[in-house]
Amino acid sequence: MGETSDGLHLLAASKNYAQAIQDFKYIDVIELFIKEEQRHGGDLGRFLDLAGIPRLQRNWGDTLFRKIRYAIPTMEIWTTPVIMVETLALVY
Ligand SMILES: [Fe+2]
User: Fold this and answer.
1) Max intra-chain CA distance, the chain
2) Helix 75-89 with 60-71: angle, nearest 10 deg
3) CA 25, CA 27: separation in Å to the nearest integer?
4) Which domain covers residue 57, as residue numbers?
5) pLDDT tens per residue across span 7-63
6) How far away, in angstroms, is 89 Cα from ligand 1 center?
7) Cα 21–9–83 angle (5° rounding)?
8) CA-to-CA distance for 20 and 32, rounded, in angstroms?
9) pTM of the model
């Protein structure tokens, strides 16, 4: 679910972070990260479709992570759950 979003909130957090550290290439890196998330999110979605597994429309964990990230839009709050989820997803 999260890997197919537009990433606008993450991009906004990255702009704040880039400003704080005065490294504006950071924004370019996050834009590439969002595109990669969308690409492999699409691949995972197609896998589910081909396997006949319905895609989730809502998930309490996704909703909780979104609410926390939107309430505290820092890169630390964004990256911690992303690293956790991406690490767990490696097996797929
Ligand atoms: Fe991912």
Assistant:
1) 47
2) 150
3) 5
4) 2-89
5) 888 899 999 999 999 999 999 999 999 999 999 889 989 999 999 999 988 889 888
6) 7
7) 70
8) 20
9) 0.82
